[in-house]
Amino acid sequence: MDTTDQRGVYVPIRDSEQPQLGKFDKPLPCFGCGIGWFSLLLGFVCPLMWYYATILYFGNYYHKDPRERDGLTASAISALVFTIAAVITIIVIIC
Fold first, then answer.
1. Can you state the angle between helices 69-94 and 48-58, rounded to 10 degrees?
2. At what angle do helices 34-43 and 69-94 cross, to 10 degrees?
3. d(CA 34, CA 27)
4. Contact indicator for 40, 74 with CB cutoff of 8 Å
5. What are 32-47's pLDDT values in tens digits?
6. What is the pTM of this model?
7. Which parts pass through the membrane (predicted)?
8. What is the CB-side half-sphere exposure of residue 88 using CA atoms within 13 A?
């Protein structure tokens, strides 16, 4: 077999003008949807996941991968809405 045959060998895509182009070629964790969106969906079953994603959002986790920012933001907003709804419910029940 000829060692110069390059068929079937994958070469990372690089761009001299944008060196980070190949940085985000790998899929996101949690079945490809990212931690933020996964936490948002799982938060409807266990709302503590929204608070976990909120901590990641305020801890600037999205600097590692900017694709995570939207999901973490959605989870933070869900945590805020859930907290307000829980406080209003507790106030109505007590009074």
1. 130
2. 20
3. 9
4. yes
5. 788 889 999 999 999 9
6. 0.70
7. 28-52, 72-94
8. 6
The parts of the chain modelled with pLDDT lower than 70 are: 1-25
Instruction: Give me 67's structure tokens.
Output: 């694709």
CB environment 5-41: b (16+ within 10 A), e (fewer): eeeeeeeeeeeeeeeeeeeeeeebeeeebbbbbbbbe
Question: What string of DSSP letters covers the chain?
Answer: --TT--TT-------SS-TTGGGG-SPPTTTTTHHHHHHHHHHTT-THHHHHHHHHHHTTGGGT-GGGHHHHHHHHHHHHHHHHHHHHHHHHHH-
Contacts 24+ apart (CB under 8 A), 22-31: 24/65, 24/66, 24/67, 28/65, 28/67, 28/68
Tokens of 28: 């996101």
CA angle centred on 39, ends 22 and 84, rounded to 5°: 130
